[in-house]
């Protein structure tokens, strides 16, 4: 059943020229219009020519014959009467000679005119005459009448020549001969009259039928032509107007943001309109996808998730398999590949440490090896691969770079994929800029403005993550609570500027003495908290002693010269000393107070006895 339906559908498409290009459609429309005009004109001219031919038969053949009959009948009667009269035979012969001459002239003119009419007329008339049968019987009848009259005329002329020597018997014999010819001529004339009357009626009927047939034929041809013209014009109008109206509605929907993908343009043909509808549907899908994509990433929690979603649409929507997304740290002049994390970098790794080596990041322009081979010297060319790098301009500089790598592909195919990918990139720029600004604000709220260390709010926001990861790895954290000895004296004696300088230098010492994975926090005033991640019992005391010695040996600068300072520290271990993280911080604080009480410039490990003695501190 489906095969039959498909066959008829293809058949209808074939006879209606649905899949033909627009230019050919209009060519066929012009050709069809021209054909129907020519066809109607041909039918009309043919009909009028046929009518004209039949009418000519009436006026040039039938009517002249009728005129001959009407002329001959009284003449023959007068001849017959003259022969039967008692007038002198000489007078009768003279009279007969004139009558017969007139009759003979009438017949000659009719025969000559009939021959001329058969050779005249337009192409259609001549063609119709060739197809029609010639009326030879009437012509033969006229010729026989002409012979009889000629015979009578010859007899009259002969009698006139011998009029003086004719005997009464010869005169009677001449009259008998003439009467015989007159009777025969009258019979021929009567037969011709009967025939001509029949032909006249037949021709008249044929003319009426031809007129009726011509009117009906022309009317039907015009009616069919009008119906076909209306159908074809309506089909052309529907083929153009409906898709264009639907496009206008969809464009309006795009402008108002009310995109309904269930109302896609129906593709009914394979011509330019069908191609336009197909491409427009793709455009609507892209615009709708980009709009939904932007709404989704606006609600994402972090910039990393936005980069991940960008990578996903590059694969699913743009059809790009190999790509890399780099996040740029303008302050440190570094780049970091954030997605996909498992991919190897396709460029010189030096760009990660010096982002100015990346041509796209440096220029802020799209860099394509399709336009110029080897445009970027940092790209590792192998196996004929080419690349397109697009910088993501946020806040006036390249905040990220997207790199697309293609194998052997046509420039047209690559341009189409890049265009779709750029659509998503452009709509994500504002979101990326917002996320980066939020990260900056969040980092600034979590970082101490003086020392550049994390502040207490950082610990409050991220303590749960630190605790969970530590417990998951079944490790422990050594907490070092540090406090500068007699720091208030520095502010009182040298001023707060020197005090701030001492705190900055101290923060540098603390960061140098710990690992990259450890966390140094300015806990408040001259107090610092250090989280030593993934340590063993006793490791914290060693690090604390290292810090204490470094601070003691460091020469701080003041207005009076060199300034020496010391630091006291308390150490506790989580979860070795307690299962509560904030309780472990309290234990480290108790150990710090013990160090202060014991004379300062020392490190004290927390023990349970110290907690029992906390009331004495």
Distance between the termini: 97 Å
Number of strands: 12
Radius of gyration: 61 Å
pLDDT under 50 segments (min length 5)?
none
User: What general outline do the C-alpha atoms trace?
Assistant: rod-shaped
The domain count comes to 3
Q: What is the share of helical residues?
A: 55-70%
Could you report the average pLDDT, rounded to the nearest whole number? 81
Count of alpha/pi helices = 17
Tell me the β content. 5-15%
Q: Which class of secondary structure composition applies to the elements? A: alpha+beta
Biggest sheet details: 5 strands, antiparallel
Strand order of the largest sheet: 2-1-5-4-3
Succession of helices and strands: HHHHHHHHEEHHEEEHHEHHEEHEEEHEH
Quickly describe the structure.
With 617 residues, this protein is of the alpha+beta class. The chain is built from 17 helices and twelve strands.
Fold and architecture overview:
The chain has helices at residues 2-15, 22-84, 89-119, 123-131, 136-161, 168-256, 272-298, 303-316, 350-353, 359-363, 411-446, 456-472, 487-494, 496-512, 539-553, 581-597, 608-612; strands spanning 322-329, 334-339, 367-368, 386-394, 397-406, 476-484, 519-524, 527-535, 556-558, 561-563, 567-574, 603-605. The protein is 64% helix and 12% strand. It starts with a helix and ends in a 5-residue tail after the last helix. It has a five-stranded antiparallel sheet. It has a five-stranded mixed sheet with strand order 7-8-6-11-12, with helices on both faces. The protein has 617 residues and is α+β, with helices and mostly antiparallel strands. The mean pLDDT is 81. The longest helix is centred in the middle third of the chain and has 89 residues, at 168-256. The chain folds into three domains: 22-228; 300-446, GAF domain (Beta-Lactamase); 456-616, Alpha-Beta Plaits (2-Layer Sandwich), CATH 3.30.70.270. Helix 2 (22-84) runs antiparallel to helix 6 (168-256).
């Amino acid at each position: 059943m489906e095969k039959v339906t498909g066959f008829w559908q293809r058949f209808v498409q074939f006879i209606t020229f649905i899949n033909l290009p627009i230019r050919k459609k209009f060519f066929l429309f012009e050709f069809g219009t021209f054909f129907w005009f020519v066809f109607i004109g041909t039918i009309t001219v043919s009909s009028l020519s046929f009518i004209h031919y039949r009418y000519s038969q009436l006026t040039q053949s039938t009517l002249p014959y009728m005129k001959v009959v009407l002329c001959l009948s009284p003449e023959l009667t007068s001849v017959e009467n003259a022969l039967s009269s008692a007038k002198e035979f000489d007078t009768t012969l003279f009279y007969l000679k004139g009558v017969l001459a007139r009759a003979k002239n009438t017949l000659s003119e009719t025969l000559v005119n009939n021959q001329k009419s058969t050779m005249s007329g337009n192409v259609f008339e001549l063609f119709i005459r060739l197809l029609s049968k010639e009326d030879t019987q009437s012509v033969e009848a006229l010729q026989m009448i002409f012979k009889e009259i000629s015979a009578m005329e010859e007899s009259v002329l002969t009698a006139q020549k011998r009029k003086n020597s004719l005997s009464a018997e010869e005169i009677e014999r001449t009259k008998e001969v003439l009467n015989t010819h007159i009777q025969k001529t009258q019979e021929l004339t009567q037969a011709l009259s009967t025939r001509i009357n029949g032909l006249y009626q037949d021709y008249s009927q044929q003319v009426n039928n031809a007129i009726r047939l011509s009117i009906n034929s022309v009317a039907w041809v015009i009616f069919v032509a009008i119906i076909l013209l209306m159908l074809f014009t309506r089909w052309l109008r529907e083929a153009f107007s409906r898709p264009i109206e639907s496009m206008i509605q969809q464009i309006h929907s795009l402008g108002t943001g009310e995109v309904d993908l269930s109302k896609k343009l129906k593709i009914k043909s394979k011509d330019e309109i069908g191609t336009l509808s197909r491409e427009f549907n793709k455009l609507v899908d892209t615009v709708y996808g980009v709009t939904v994509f932007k709404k989704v990433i606006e609600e994402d929690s972090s910039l990393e998730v936005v980069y991940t979603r960008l990578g996903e649409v590059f694969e699913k929507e743009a059809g790009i398999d190999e790509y890399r997304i780099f996040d740029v740290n303008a302050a440190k002049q570094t780049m970091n590949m954030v997605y996909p994390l498992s991919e190897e970098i396709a460029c010189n790794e030096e760009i990660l440490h010096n982002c100015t080596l990346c041509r796209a990041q440096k220029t802020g322009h799209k860099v394509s090896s399709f336009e110029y081979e080897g445009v970027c010297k940092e790209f590792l060319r192998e196996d004929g691969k080419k690349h397109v790098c697009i910088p993501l301009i946020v806040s006036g500089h390249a905040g990220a770079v997207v790199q697309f790598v293609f194998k052997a592909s046509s420039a047209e195919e690559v341009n189409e994929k890049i265009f779709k990918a750029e659509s998503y990139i452009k709509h994500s720029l504002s979101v990326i800029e917002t996320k980066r600004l939020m990260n900056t604000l969040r980092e600034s709220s979590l970082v101490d403005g003086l020392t550049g260390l994390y502040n207490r709010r950082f610990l409050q926001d991220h303590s749960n993550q630190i605790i969970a990861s530590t417990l998951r790895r079944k490790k422990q954290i050594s907490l070092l609570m540090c406090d500068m000895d007699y720091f208030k004296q520095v502010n009182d004696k040298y001023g707060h500027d020197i005090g701030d300088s001492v705190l900055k230098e101290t923060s540098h010492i603390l960061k140098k003495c710990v690992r990259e994975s450890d966390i140094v926090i300015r806990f408040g005033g001259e107090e610092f908290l250090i989280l030593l991640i993934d340590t063993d019992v006793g490791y914290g005391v060693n690090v604390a002693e290292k810090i204490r010695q470094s601070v003691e040996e460091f020469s701080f600068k003041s207005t009076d010269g060199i300034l020496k300072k010391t630091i006291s520290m308390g150490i506790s271990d989580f979860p070795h000393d307690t299962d509560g993280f904030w309780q472990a911080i309290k234990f480290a604080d108790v150990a710090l107070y013990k160090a202060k009480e014991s004379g300062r410039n020392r490190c004290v490990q927390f023990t349970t006895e110290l907690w029992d003695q906390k009331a004495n501190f």
